[in-house]
Automatic annotation (TrEMBL), chain A:
Membrane-crossing residue ranges in chain numbering: 7-29, 35-53, 109-132, 144-162, 169-188, 200-220, 253-279, 315-342, 354-380, 386-404, 464-486
Record keywords, A-Z: Membrane, Transmembrane, Transmembrane helix
Top-level taxonomic group: Bacteria
Alphabetized PANTHER family for the sequence: TRICARBOXYLIC TRANSPORT PROTEIN (PTHR35342)
Domain DUF112: 20-438
Protein name, entry field: Tripartite tricarboxylate transporter permease
UniProt source species: Paracoccus aerius
UniProtKB/TrEMBL annotation, chain B:
Signal peptide per UniProt: 1-24
Keyword Signal: yes
Keywords: Signal
Pfam families: TctC
Domain of life: Bacteria
Entry protein name: Tripartite tricarboxylate transporter substrate binding protein
Amino acid sequence: MDLISNLAMGFGVASSLANLMFCLIGVLLGTLIGVLPGIGATATIAMLLPITFQLEPVSSLIMLAGIYYGAQYGGSTTAILINMPGESSSAVTAIDGYQMARKGRAGTALATAALGSFFAGSVATFLVAIFAPPLTTIALKFGAAEYFSLMVMGLVMSVALAHGSVLKALAMVVLGLLLGMVGTDVYTGAPRFTMGMNQFADGLNFVAVAVGVFGIAEILRNLEDEHDRQVMTRNITRLFPNRDEFRQMIGPVLRGTGIGSVLGILPGGGAILASFASYTIEKKVSKNPEEFGKGALAGVAGPESANNAGAQTSFIPLLTLGIPANPVMALMIGAMIIQGIVPGPNVVSEQPQLFWGIIASMWIGNLMLVVLNLPLIGLWVKLLTVPYYVLFPIIMAMCSIGVYSVNSNPYDLFAVAFFGLLGYVLSKLRCEPAPLLLGFVLGPLLEENLRRAMILSRGDPTTFVTRPISATLLLLSLAILVLVFLPQIRKRRDEVFTESDA
Amino acid sequence: MTSITRRILLGSALALGLAGAAAAEFPERQITLVIPFAAGGSTDVVGRIVADRMSQELGQQIVVQNVGGAGGSLGAQQVANAEPDGYTILMGTVATHALNPLILKQKPYDPVADFAPVSLLVLVPNVLAVHPDVPAQTVQELIDLAKAEPLAYASSGNGTPLHLSGELFKAMADVEIDHIPYKGSGPALTDVLGNQVPIIFDNLPSASGHISSGKLRALGVTTAERAPSFPDVPAIAETLPGYETYSWNALFAPAGTPPEVIEALAAAAQATMADPAVVERMGEFSATVVASTPAELGEHVTAEMAKWEPVVRDANVSMD
């Protein structure tokens, strides 16, 4: 029973007084920066890297990991309360979470997010412990063709994110795809849509776009009518979910955990799909899909569990292969190298204390987070009573600092301003920002992998259907497409028939 | 001894004295070290280790600022335009000071005229590695294989030192291998570990863990000599005489920085790189410590530009 003795060793390492303290510091910091809009885990970890020089390698990685998943918890708080997602995963939470808050159910939404995240985090941590090595081999089976098909599936799903007109949702996805094209072409080095400014050579900053179209646009909208907001605080009757709501939560949380755990292992864009995928599925299986977008509990519970499960399992490629699944993981690799640990497949065997210590600390950290966050919900909800003239300038300042701190690029701030205005215009036109964001995130991945797959197959497009994983994903996309459009086609046909009858 | 030499000696003694006086005054406040890449990469790691130790040498804090973007050009441009007082310095690389200026059609800065060289800190070898399923065991066998069937190699991106190492290899070995660019080393490594792409040119530090675990087979290092951290891996030059590429990290200040300030920075950098703890760290990282003088770095930049110019031209790599 290697696993049990390894886990015991891990808990031994993680529960030393010093490591418990660093874990607590990490999750506290993570929650805090997650709650502050715009400041993400990437910027925080980058700023804290020099401090980790002086720490033990295990302690420093435990703390950095704590910041990362702590931020996932905290990020949902701002998404729910002020419609301000700090990263792609909480963009989905904002859709229904913010609507719940507007109806006075902010406490319920926050508690759902925290409990769902805790459950998902615990399950995913055990998956990491048991299946890390075999799961890695699955991740390696994903080549360019498979990623392309996965992204196709993601884009097809994005249409389901819309709760209004499908046409407008498609338009937003396409706009997002176009915005994602800004920057240097990976294959030829040609700059695209940069307007001659090499500050845009690496594309638009995701945080700038997200904070703009969601947050700043929301602030502008709120400035129009102040009285709307009274509803949010007046109707709060209780902070915690009741028995019935708990029952509603179970299914979405379980499905979200499964989806998030699987997609989280794929380096290069798998994890960002998790919360979107979970939302789509919840909407499909729900008995009341019309509730989605108007404050559906399942629309918060599912995606939040999915993103937290994905956050944990994205450590698998890092710990077993030394491959970063996202920018935060790239920083963790930097932290390991600074400590003199060569990231790679040898970490598990050469540094078992480190490997198992981190895994055990993730579970402890998740427990700390839920204990920390549940009592804080009352405090966060009070934030809603802060008057606009105090709250808005603070949010704007925080966003600006956060966006600027990533790359010290002033053009990112111009982008925030521009996308704030664009988001406001879009909201006036009743176009939803979530499909736009998904298109923006997936577009570059779709293109990059399409072209890579084509180079590798030497121009043969059948590569997408002859590779089994890719073919399966494409078939799934087709099935989803049929499911999405069938009801509409049937409706139209019914209309046609009624007309001809008449 | 002629009077001329004596005068030169006197002059340099005087200059040294002046430099000493200026050095005592120079760092009056914190210094910003601009790293032109995102945090977590190899340049960032070298930069942070150096900044940490150099702060002690100078008695003032060196603050690391990551200004990533446009393959390092944004950060380099920022330092080129900074106040030439030594309080803003750059962690330059082969990309910012040789390749980008050669590749970019619109040059955002001049690597020679806009900078005052301080010290060439380290050389970092690159490595040619293959997935273990690839039948080629040596560089020569890989060349023969490439002549027999179509192959592809992964690199960290278009116009990066690794891409050009691959192009130089193709030119010298007279073979055709498709280039597959990625956004950084991490995703490129992933695809080679999964055998989606058979060959990779990578920085030795980022590939070393996979080489020692046997998940990748190193065929050759790109430096003229074998790397001390991997004595069993031959140099590509053993098969293709004259083949030599490597990445490097060097400190630059903006042009017009007073010479005594440059001297103070160079002295601190050299003392930093002489610290056995730093040397050991760099060794773990497969980086070789150089710790040159400002003049040597100036010559190095010129030599690198001369070396890469024909490779860039023949590979037909250019960006607007």
